[in-house]
């Protein structure tokens, strides 16, 4: 919830009025990639949804950046104060 002033005229400069969530292009690109959508088709879908033209090169760059962050997260050192590591997996 957004804090309100007495007269209800304050809106944070980073959010549009009544906006609940900003679209994270990386999230959308990775979700489409994970669903097996080609980069060209993902560019078309994002263009339709977000009203801005995206190229497949842009989608590729977004996906590559997010995948780098995921790999860095997966290979981070485990803190010494962590007592347990719970692993779970599913194999088809």
From TrEMBL:
<protein>
    <recommendedName>
        <fullName>Mutator family transposase</fullName>
    </recommendedName>
</protein>
<keyword id="KW-0814">Transposable element</keyword>
<dbReference type="GO" id="GO:0003677">
    <property type="term" value="F:DNA binding"/>
</dbReference>
<dbReference type="Pfam" id="PF00872">
    <property type="entry name" value="Transposase_mut"/>
</dbReference>
<dbReference type="GO" id="GO:0004803">
    <property type="term" value="F:transposase activity"/>
</dbReference>
<keyword id="KW-0238">DNA-binding</keyword>
<keyword id="KW-0815">Transposition</keyword>
<comment type="similarity">
    <text>Belongs to the transposase mutator family.</text>
</comment>
<keyword id="KW-0233">DNA recombination</keyword>
<comment type="function">
    <text>Required for the transposition of the insertion element.</text>
</comment>
<dbReference type="GO" id="GO:0006313">
    <property type="term" value="P:DNA transposition"/>
</dbReference>
<dbReference type="InterPro" id="IPR001207">
    <property type="entry name" value="Transposase_mutator"/>
</dbReference>
